[in-house]
Design brief:
8-stranded mixed beta sheet; 4 helices; about 30% strand; globular
């Protein structure tokens, strides 16, 4: 009986583990399936588009981009503009303001993950 339960649970457990290993969603992934992500909290990754870093009263606004013209508008609350650099990847934790909006409310920038991701990308690139 226990073996039967384990075998039936294996696909469910493996999907859960695979999902938890996905550290972030890229701009391209999110825009390809925008409505399915809704307003759930996620880690969004993109490369900061040059000329889009702006200081705001809440922190900073940036436009991370994917390939082609894919980009979103991120309002990073509490994040100073110095955390962002043009043409450098960034990971922002937050959510889209509405189910179909391209406006993303960023609540956190995982600093240690951001710097290690940059180092990894520089070494492999």
């Amino acid at each position: 009986m226990l073996t039967s339960w384990v075998l039936r649970s294996l696909p469910w457990l493996s999907q859960g583990l695979l999902h938890s290993l996905n550290y972030f969603e890229t701009v391209n992934q999110v825009l390809a399936k925008r409505a399915s992500f809704g307003t759930e909290v996620m880690r969004l990754e993109g490369v900061v588009k040059p000329g889009t870093i702006e200081r705001t009263s809440n922190g900073a606004c940036v436009h991370p981009r994917g390939s082609g013209t894919n980009q979103v508008h991120v309002d990073a609350h509490g994040s100073p503009p110095q955390l962002f650099q043009a043409n450098i990847p960034v990971v922002v934790v937050g959510h889209f303001t509405t189910r179909h909006s391209l406006d993303f409310d960023g609540t956190q920038i995982p600093g240690e993950a951001h710097s290690s991701y940059i180092a990894e990308r520089i070494q492999s690139g």
